[in-house]
Amino acid sequence: MSDTNQKKAFFNHKKRFCLPDKITIRPVTEGLLERLNANPEKKRLVEVRHLDVTYGHGFKKFRAVKDISFNIYQGEVLGLVGESGSGKSTTGSALIGLARHSFGDIIIDGVKLPKQGEKVTKELTDFMVNNVQMIFQDPSNSLNPYVNIETVVSEGLNNIKDLKKSFLRLIYKDYLRGLKKELKAKNLANNEQVQTFLEKAQDLKFDYLNETNQQELIQLFNELELANLSLDNNNKKLEKAFNDINTWKSKTRTDITRHLILDVLKSVGLDETVLRRYPLEFSGGQQQRIGISRAVALRPKLLIADEPISALDVSIQAQVVNIFKELKAKYDLTILFIAHDLRMVEYISDRIAVMNKGVLLEIGPTKEIVKNFLHPYTRSLMEAVPSIDSDKKSLLGYVYDANMHGYTHEKQPKWIHLGNDHYILGTEEEVADWKAGKY
């Protein structure tokens, strides 16, 4: 999605049956396009633009999310923080389609999600099942207590029409992902021979299931080895990937399903002894591991974790967060991590976005938000985190009042760049005062 043509206004198109689209125009906040276009070299997996989520109708209508815009880049963890009622869980629900948005656009890997009242196609449902998964706050309520763990974890896999083809593609893509990381680490990505190999390997028309094509690609890679590019005998890894593909081609869907279940259970610290047991036989931490394995078994492009640790005992919260970090590295996941516990968000996130009452207030790299936060609401969240080194006399710390800004039709906030990809919503005068410590 390009933002270059959206300068001063956003045009919202809502489809209507047998009628032209209803078009609504909304002004674009100053500085927003600079923020959204700040990282052109990164691939945008998720693009959220001017999003509203509204509950109820008429006099009971309530805007839970108000005109928020952000990107989630492929391979990153974006932490979304705020107190209860800030709209962060509603945002996550909108991204997976559980809460239909009333205004704006949600685009996931090039696919636009329908708004309230618009038709949901079978193609869209299949796309969402295969590419977007959610982990819920309370594992005991999200797991069916009447079926065993094998059935729970295989639930998503059973919804994939051609599981074997998807699994074989995963084997091939896992190899390519590992190779690209090695090439990047050794500064070989721009080598002419390497680019020729990658173009062939990533060609959408390349049939990696055909054994003749496999041998051709192996031969091409052997030429890279002969060029002394120090690829650590990666041709053996390519041969192993093709051997695995050829072995699994003859297996049944049941064999593949069981293999995927055992593999993902192992990734979260469980084994096959749990398969015949039921969810209520496990502790809260174990139930959440099962919920994670159910979501990750499909290898989704986007994983939405909605307060995944808030219902767990403090002693095991760190264990579950470590599982997320390990799974992100293993499966190259992109994660929206929703939480109110800044300690855990700081530990796992690449960037942090701060929300209050449905409005995005501050966003930037984790270190910037934690060390150089500026918005008064972010300050209130940071001071609410307990610390044995703190010399504050109150457990409450700084208390944020949304009425402090006094915004009017003439006095409106804008997105201001503080440096290092760190942006804040406020007026020039407010930001100057906050930098001076005047809150």
Number of strands: 14
Derived structural class: alpha/beta
Q: Uncertain segments of ≥5 residues (pLDDT<50)?
A: none
Terminal CA distance = 38 Å
Report mean pLDDT, rounded to a whole number: 89
Spatial order of strands in the largest sheet: 8-9-10-5-11-12-14-13
Oligomer: single chain
GO molecular function: ATP binding; ATP hydrolysis activity
Family: Belongs to the ABC transporter superfamily.
Domain ABC transporter: 48-382
Keywords: ATP-binding, Nucleotide-binding, Transport
Helices, strands, pairings?
Layout: E1 9-16, E2 19-27, H1 32-36, E3 44-55, E4 62-73, E5 77-81, H2 88-96, E6 103-108, E7 111-112, H3 122-131, E8 132-135, H4 139-142, H5 149-154, H6 163-185, H7 192-201, H8 211-226, H9 234-248, H10 253-267, H11 284-296, E9 302-306, H12 314-331, E10 334-339, H13 342-348, E11 351-356, E12 359-365, H14 366-372, H15 376-383, E13 414-419, E14 422-426, H16 428-435
Parallel strand pairs: 5-10, 5-11, 8-9, 9-10
Antiparallel strand pairs: 1-2, 3-4, 3-6, 6-7, 11-12, 12-14, 13-14
Helix pairs in contact: 6-9, 7-8, 8-9, 10-11, 11-12
Domain ABC transporter: 48-382
Keywords: ATP-binding, Nucleotide-binding, Transport
Organism: Ureaplasma urealyticum (Ureaplasma urealyticum biotype 2)
